[in-house]
Amino acid sequence: MYPEPRVARFINNNFIPVRLHVKKHPEAMPRFNVDWTPTVLIVDADGKELHRIEGFLPADEFLGQLQLGFAHAQFTKKNFAEAERHFRDVAEKLPGTDAAAEATYWAGVSRYKATNDASALKATGQAFKDRYQNSVWAKKASIWA
Amino acid sequence: MTGDRVILSREDGEGSQLRQQLRMRAFSEAVMATEVATQWTEDVDPALAESKKTKKLVLLDFTAAPM
Fold it and tell me: 3-state DSSP call for residue B67?
């Protein structure tokens, strides 16, 4: 997945990349509560975990998860407009991935947090009537529709 | 380069072999170019320190694959 140019580009633009081989750096696994490989973590400057990807994923799914993690990090920092932009990017550019449904949900929440306008949640609930109906995110958004 | 073109224009076995070698070299270089596109470090704490300065998030990739 890393030789995939879109993945490499996203990593280079948004992260400081650290690769830890389990045999060379066994001390790093308990430090970050990692019990399985491959595991990819997005952490902040204090080493606080913001997002976790466990197991292999094909390039599109992996890129979706990376973008989702990046967007969640913006959300955590209360950069809601920026978070929404990244969540919508996942939903629009990677619509066939598992990350897209979750991104659709959080894009709506981000819009609501940025504007305090409850219609953002209603629109998100409505959007799930057209797609990802079987996802857990559609169920979570159903209360808004 | 001119020499390569002269040889590649020949339809004998030698030209074909060289063409194949050049294709393989171009392919290998393309693969290497994308693989080195991400500059991985193996040092967590310096990466966290850099994160403090640059405000960039840190991506930790735990792997058991040959490096």
Answer: coil
Q: Which residues between 29 and 48 in chain B have a beta carbon less than 8 angstroms from any beta carbon of chain A?
A: 31, 34-35, 37-44, 47-48
Question: Sheet holding A39-43: strands in order across?
Answer: A15-21, B57-63, A39-43, A49-54
ipTM: 0.92
> Considering the entire predicted model, what is its pTM?
0.79
CB pairs under 8 A between A and B: 123
State pLDDT tens for residues A74-119.
999 999 999 999 999 999 999 999 999 999 999 999 999 999 999 9
The reply to whether residue A19 touches residue B42, judged by beta carbons under 8 angstroms, is yes
What is the phi-psi region of residue A132: left when phi exceeds 0, alpha when psi lies from -120 to 50, beta otherwise? left
The three-class DSSP label of residue A17 is strand
The correct CATH number of A5-144 out of 1.25.40.10, 3.40.190.10, 1.50.10.10, 2.60.200.30 is 1.25.40.10
pLDDT single digits (tens) A22-39: 999 999 999 999 999 999
